[in-house]
Amino acid sequence: MGQGLTQRLYSVLEYNSDKVIVEFTSKDHPIFVAHFPKNPILPGFLLIDVISEILKDTVVKIVRSKFISHIVPNDIITYNIETKMKRKKITVFKNDKKVSEIIYETK
User: Fold this and answer.
1) Residue 89: enclosing H or E segment and its boundaries?
2) Can you tell me the distance from the alpha carbon of 41 to that of 63, in angstroms, rounded to the nearest whole number?
3) In terms of Cα–Cα distance, which of 20, 23, 21 is closest to 9?
4) Which of 11, 26, 34, 56 is least surrounded by CB atoms within 10 angstroms?
């Protein structure tokens, strides 16, 4: 995806090999304005794009994605990362509550 849609969408607060903490920007970002103007939420595909961008992964296959709860402007989330060869299992938490789980394969 590059940084077109995700530019200035988030800031990385913490980064290591098994955990990334991200803070999303305000509701004025074009993503939140478009999705949706009166009830801004982060599109699920961007949750995947953000972590793959941070990890510099090229996603070749999304094995599983489950979105349990919305991510909204100014949310701080934690991506917990488990890596097995070319497969990543990403569990996403907001306020210590699981909000998403993603499994993808990389190049």
Assistant:
1) strand 87-94
2) 23
3) 23
4) 56
Q: Which top CATH class is 10-106?
A: alpha beta
What torsion, rounded to 10 degrees, do the Cα atoms 19, 87, 74, 23 define?
A: 40
Pairwise CA distance, residues 90 & 22, whole Å = 14
Q: Residue for token digits 């988030």?
A: 10
Q: Which two tokens stand for residue 31?
A: 């993503």
Q: What whole-number distance in Å separates Cα of residue 62 and Cα of residue 18? A: 19
Does residue 71 contact residue 47 with C-beta atoms inside 8 Å?
A: yes
Query: Structure pTM?
Result: 0.92
Q: What is the DSSP string of 57-83?
A: --EEEEEEEEE-S---TT-EEEEEEEE
Local confidence pLDDT in tens for the 107 residues of the chain: 445 667 799 999 999 999 999 999 999 999 999 988 899 999 999 999 999 999 999 999 999 999 999 999 999 999 999 999 999 999 999 999 999 999 999 99
